[in-house]
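Appendix B. One record, verbatim.
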Amino acid sequence: MSRAVRYDGYGGIDVLHVVEVERPTPAAGQVVVRVKAAGINPGEANIREGRLAELWPSTFPSGQGSDFAGIVEEVGTDVDDIVPGDEVIGFTDDRASHADFGVVPAEQLTPKPSTVSWEVAGSLFVAGTTAFAVVRAVALRDGETVVVSGAAGGVGTLTVQLARNLGARVLGLASDRHHAWLEQHGVIPIAYGDGVEARIRDAAGGTVDAFIDTFGSGYVKLAIDLGVAPDRIDTIADRASAAKYGVKTAGNADAASADVLHELASLVDKGILEVPIAKVYPLDAVQDAYRELEERHTIGKIVLVP
């Protein structure tokens, strides 16, 4: 037997619980991984609360989680390049990573570099591929100015670094307590709230070329008001405004592959990309982990460790 997070109906964090389940076995082409760490993400909270039921309904009882890293426990037939004992980073499309064990197709795994911690590896997929997708969507070029909302969040911290790696000048919207981290990573920090448009214009000192919204709450309209072209705006948090203004909604699904995950892990391995870890919780404290996540005050990722 093994443990897994479940919820039996839409609701707040109180519907989350840990149950005993059968340990998975691999079918042809599949790999069973003993999970060492698994990241948590705001999208999972939205799904669990039923906010995205029209797009991604839950089938109850539902599992949870996409990100994970761990050690290969067992492989199915037709798996030739992965063996038990391999350390891997991966993702599941079955809402099942918040568990002791996961089973996924072999093509959803990539080797974990030895220099990358379990906590970082296990929280890399959703935030990393989302950041990769949004930066690619706005087509940043060397010397351009981009604004990133939610710049200190799980996606935002990676987005600003990837944008800087392309030579962009990055203005990051975040609370004052996170400004030091942004500055250390070459980002110009800007406080959100009243007067933010004027602060952005002052810091930009000219044209704002692109805008990446990882937070929602009116930032798409702000980008339009700043004169950013709709095809240089991407939001992962405000589909209604995206439809209204004709801006992009590229996100995790647009870069969800082991190849992109491998590229991101390589950047971490080389010290080019930092994945800040806000806090690590044991699997049994999943409610506490999501309580902290939903307060939206931490910088970087929150991780579950079975």
